[in-house]
Amino acid sequence: MEQQAVEAAAIAGSVSGDLSILSLVARADFIVKLVLVLLLGSSIWSWAIIFDKVRRLRRVSTKASEFEEVFWSGGSLEDLYDRIGTKADHPMALLFASAMREWRRSGAHGLVESDRLSTGVQERIGQVMRLTIARELDRLERYLGFLATVGSTAPFIGLFGTVWGIMNSFQSIAVSKNTSLAVVAPGIAEALFATAFGLVAAIPAVVAYNKFSSDLNRFSGRLEGFAGEFSAILSRQLDERTD
Amino acid sequence: MRGAIGISVAFHLTLATAAWTGLPVLFEDAIQEETPIIVELVAIAEETRAAPETRQKEPEPEPEPPKPEPVKAEPKPPPPPPAAKPAPPAPEKVAALPPPPKPEPKPKAAEPPPPPPETRIAPDPPAPKTNIRPKTKPEPPKKTPRFDAGRIAVLIDKTRKDEAPEAEPEEAPKKFLQPPPVPESPLQRAAIGNRLTVSEVDAIRYQIEQCWNVPAGARDARDLVIRVRINLDPDGSLKGPPVILDRSRMDDDFFRTAAESAVRAVRLCTPLKNLPTTKYDRWQEITLTFNPREMLGG
Fold first, then answer.
1. In sequence order, what are the beta bridge partners of B140?
2. Quick check: A157 and A198 in contact, CB under 8 A?
3. What is the ipTM of this complex?
4. What is the pTM of this model?
5. What does the alpha-carbon distance between residue B180 and residue B199 come to, in Å, rounded to a whole number?
């Protein structure tokens, strides 16, 4: 009994060392290290996406509010287009600019004089606005898929590292022919660290993905609402001209 | 996107440094490394679990004295050197400063600290410091005897084991890490009487408890009291297979598991140590009671 205790203590002294994170990682198996590096990389990339999206969505939203204020202030739309022109830098202004550009081109060629053509102009403007919305939303949604991927796969990748690490620690049991906790614990600790890391990478990604996709949904609704209102204004304008 | 990647990398670096500097500290708080405490019954006495100090102290003083002595030896040496050091410099000063009247320096040599001028102030403080230390150090020895008297009783009584570490967790491991004191040979003690005292049963029980894995997961684990009869050889090894009493309850799976664990414990722990051979006829057949309630701290 005493012998066993002494033996266990000796093993504990030789095997466990300290359990700080870095020493755990340093001792880990090559595959586990690879998994950890992979997870670290995806965590860095997903946080980069998060920071970028937060900034971009906030900017886009405030710019859209400012633009709407100007748009509904009652000033001439032609003036507004001249002012914004080609240097529109946010989705709503781009939407407005593309519609106005199409409107002007049609007007310049005198295509709006007949009734038949006016509907064609309206259709074209609607088409242009739809395309602009799709393009801008696509740009805003870029990289968002990566967040979803990280959110769903990172736990599994971490789990893979854990399973691998536990396999190793069982092998170390087989080698040392000793089942004492001191032999098993470090291997399991380093293995579980991989799962912890996977979860750390996945949780923010999932939360951010959900937040951003709902934000983007709202914003696309807002763009479509604006497009509808704008096309209504333009069609009224067309009808007034043709009459 | 570039900027965002930069921010993200910085964010991860801060997290990593936090983990590097902060988390290990947190872990240290959380994980208390268990140092194996090896304690054996020092000697087998006629009385057991006796609170009175007279009995308990008998075995204690033997292992104790060696430890306090080295501790004292350390603090004591320091004081002499400081005392010796101030003395030599003082004469030098006296020699360096001939102008002051000669009768004065001599008293100064006798009481070194005060007289030397302001330049001497620096060397002086160390002397008081070394003097202060011995005052604080003697305390541990004072504490330990008081602590051990209770501690032995606590260690014998398994049910109170949990409370013991809380009381003085820091000093306990240091004390018990040292090789356990060599117990008095039980043979000498046994001459007192040849009736098996309770403490010999305790000695056996204590040794066997060490090997027993309580089936803690069983239903009503607390009520699984198992009685096992064992026959021992004079050298403390098993003479025959341990016999489980209460065979009628063996139908219960949990009871059978527990009983088998008890038998396993007996097999693991025999041969038993430190049993007085002169009283062999008293302990050649013993009925052990395995009570999970005590092991589970109920």
1. none
2. yes
3. 0.70
4. 0.48
5. 19
